Amino acid sequence: MKKLVGLSTSWLKFALGVSIVFVLCSASASPVQANAKYAGIVIDAKTGKTLYRNHADSARYPASLTKMMTLYLVFDALESGKISKRTKIPVSRHAARQVPSKLGLRPGQTITVEQVILALVTKSANDAATAIGEFLGGSEAGFARMMTQKARQLGMNSTTFRNANGLPDRRQKTTARDMARLGLALRDHHPRYYSYFTTRSFKYRGRRFGNHNNLLGRVKGVDGIKTGYTRASGFNLVSSVEARGRSIVSVVMGGRTSRSRDAQMRKLISRYLPKASRGPDRFRIDRGGESALVAFALPKTMIPVPAQNPARADDSRAVLVAAATDDMAVGQQVGSSDAVDPINTASTHKGEWVIQVGSLPSEAAAREVLSRAARKAPKMLADASALVEPFRKDGNVYYRARYASFDSKSEAWRTCKRLARKDIDCYAVIQ
Fold first, then answer.
1. What residues does the SPOR domain cover (predicted)?
2. Does 367 reside within a domain?
3. Among the options 92, 124, 158, 291, which is catalytic?
4. What's the number of domains the chain is made of?
5. Are residues 320 and 359 in contact, defined by beta-carbon separation less than 8 angstroms?
6. Are residues 167 and 217 in the same domain?
């Protein structure tokens, strides 16, 4: 009987120990890892380097992060003189009917452009966003087309907009990486108006509306940018941070609650801001073009360059053939060596695998090569980010046409092999 009691006690202790281990493991499991909606990225704003990423190129719903692009186009219109801060925006019945969050605008009334801006950066007012979209685009659908076109010009190739406010639409998709690009573009292209994102509160018709961004004034260096939430998207946040000579843009998407989203953002800022560069700003996002992000991040020292010049400047097939050097990146070439030049250069995404489809004498020719590849292989390149990267040779600037956002060497090599079957020469290289 004592043996039985002793045996039972031993089994009880064993079972209790297993239970404790299980509970502790469950408690320590990252909520990020357990959340299928989560996506995140941290970009060094001075170099363009990706400091952190987790599902950064997976499709997500932007929710009210959409209003970042709405505001970008408003700032464009202000800068061009098409509107002023005092321009009165009419409120349509459609705009007034938008669901909260909203100001409660009524059909037939007007609201100034500056009031719209303040309403979007604080209250995230859906009715105000729709009103300005209709005014600038002729209709909300027309404005959404303008938004998507601008997204392509900024290199946000995985983003499609369908409305001005971010209310649910299953066709309105983006990625954490694209939202980071938009955040960087807002800072770089519209410094005159970017300070609106620091607004803590906004008073309209006797009511005061606080900013939904809980990190403003609470986390050192945070100066914006935007929050967002729908049931489908979860809780989203894009943050711009400048402190101690360093600068980052960080994105968290799909949080379960605003509190957990904010906690994750705090963690990313704390962990990765110290890893950002303190050097000069060497990264810019091109404002024009059809689809390419141009990373003007040329190194201080000369990089390895091809041994021969392109045949002629108007030939989109003209390339620069590389000589082997110790500085050449480790990679795999698929297709003709006359169509790509496998040289490691300054890149938007250092430490990541990219595929190169050409090296051209002009930016326009490089974009055409990227567009041609996208037309020939739309499914293969649907999740890739198009890049045009300049480099110097003999005092001239040439342009490499590349696709980024590959998670591994095997994925990049596999894509190259598939592209070769469609007569697209390709080189897989790690930056």
1. 347-431
2. yes
3. 124
4. 2
5. yes
6. yes
- Both 268 and 393 in one domain: the answer is no
Dihedral class, residue 79 (left if φ above 0, else alpha if ψ from -120 to 50, else beta): alpha
Does residue 245 share a domain with residue 162? yes
C-alpha angle 352-147-42 in degrees, rounded to nearest 5: 30
pTM above 0.70, yes or no: no
Query: Same domain, yes or no, for 379 and 246?
Result: no
240 is catalytic: no
Same domain, 228 and 297: no
Taking every pair of Cα atoms in the chain, the longest distance, rounded to a whole number of angstroms, is 96
Q: Does the annotation flag 226 for ligand binding?
A: yes
Please tell me the distance from the alpha carbon of residue 63 to that of residue 370, in angstroms, as a whole number. Answer: 29
Please tell me which residue in 49, 67, 102, 123 is annotated as part of the active site.
67
Q: How sure is the predictor about 10, in pLDDT bands with cuts at 50, 70 and 90? A: low
The pLDDT tens digits of the residues spanning 143-186 come to 999 999 999 999 999 999 999 999 999 999 999 999 999 999 99
Phi, psi values for residue 400, rounded to 5°: -95, 135
Told to judge if 275 belongs to the known catalytic residues of this protein, a careful annotator would answer no
Residue range of the domain that includes 336: 293-430
Residue 64 known to be catalytic:
yes
Work out the average pLDDT over 43-63.
96
pLDDT digits (tens, 9 = 90+) for 65-98: 999 999 999 999 999 999 999 999 999 999 999 9
CATH number at residue 373: 3.30.70.1070
pLDDT in tens, 196-222: 999 999 999 999 999 999 999 999 999
Which residue in the list 64, 101, 250, 347 is annotated as catalytic?
Answer: 64
